[in-house]
């Protein structure tokens, strides 16, 4: 249904029909070109504004995320003297596999050193179970000899730089000198503990939820419309 606003204007008393005592109101219909009733300029302006408000800007969003994932693994050596006898220099025993950072790892323990040059030392290395060349893991690793209270021994805290783990492991050939360990209080009942702190460096691209589309809203021209109404008196319901 189309509603038309029919402005009312006053007719002078000397041109009115009737007894001349009561003002008569005359209906005046607003017409567009062609003589057909239509919407006023204000209505067309409002439709244009609504049309412009429907237009928005589509926005997408993503992020480059860098961060650290940190954890540790405790390796208990039980029966140290037996491991010395069974594993000569260059031979190691691998720990149980453990999962960290979405990958499987293990620690290789060399009780008589990995290299003959360092046969008087215990060597230790962290390795990936399945190294993937095109998907290496970058990590910083700290090896700690723990005392009987479970605290790191300050003289035996060794940290690697940032290493790229894929098909090889990283660690220290001279982690603990056997003579030092055997004469210390850090070994008890032929047992001692090594703690391996691992910090994985991660860098990945992620999708983000974009903000709602922005809307281009034109500045308000209400004051101009009100001014035109006051001057022209068009659109008024009744005028006197």
From TrEMBL:
InterPro entries: BPM1-6, MATH/TRAF_dom, TRAF-like
Start and end residues of each MATH domain: 70-198
Biological-process GO terms, alphabetical: protein ubiquitination
One of the Pfam families matching this protein, by short name: MATH_2
Annotated Polar residues bias: 40-49
Domain of life: Eukaryota
Region (Disordered): 32-58
Name of the protein: MATH domain-containing protein
Organism: Eleusine coracana subsp. coracana
Lineage: Eukaryota, Viridiplantae, Streptophyta, Embryophyta, Tracheophyta
